[in-house]
C-alpha cells in the first residue's frame, strides 16, 4: 500500500476530477442555453446585450476546466514521432519527464497568479481596491467587465484554479507513472486513455 501522502495526492486529484466533471457539464449547459437565448432574442429583434460576454466567459471557464480534466485523464495532446521508437523503459522515462513538465508549468503559472493577484497585498490594503491600485499600479481589483459589470478578478480566478488543479493532476499522474500509486479508474468519464506519451 502506498504511503499516505501518495494516497492523499491521488485521492485529491480524483476528487477534484469529479468536481471538474460537474463543472464541465454545467458550463456546457450554460453555454448552450446562452447561445440559444442569443439566437432566439436576436431573431425576435430583441437582443440581450450581455449574453455575448457571458458566453465568452463561460467558454473560457469551460476551456480551462476541461484542459485540467484532460490532463488527469491523459487525453492532452502528444507528439509521438520520437517516443514511439523508444523501448518500453524509454517510453516510461519520456512519460515521467512529460508529466513533470506539466507539474513545472502548473507551479510556474500558480506562482505568476500569486504575484499578479497578490492576495496578501490586497488584504494589507484593507481590500481597498483603489488604494491598492494607487500604491502598486496593479489595477486588477478596480477593473470591471464591459457589459456584465462584474469585478474582473472574479473572471480571472479561473487561472489560479487551473494552475492548482493541473499541478495536482500532474503530480497524481507522475506518482502513477513512477509506479508509486496504482493507476486510477475514472467513473463518469467514458473516454479511452491516449496512446501518446503524455
Automatic annotation (TrEMBL):
The chain crosses the membrane at residues 22-43, 96-117, 153-172. Pfam families: DctQ. Residues 31-178 form the Tripartite ATP-independent periplasmic transporters DctQ component domain. It comes from the Bacteria. It is found in: Cell inner membrane. The keyword Transport applies. The complex comprises the extracytoplasmic solute receptor protein and the two transmembrane proteins. Belongs to the TRAP transporter small permease family. Part of the tripartite ATP-independent periplasmic (TRAP) transport system. This is TRAP transporter small permease protein. The lineage of its organism: Bacteria, Pseudomonadati, Pseudomonadota, Alphaproteobacteria, Hyphomicrobiales.
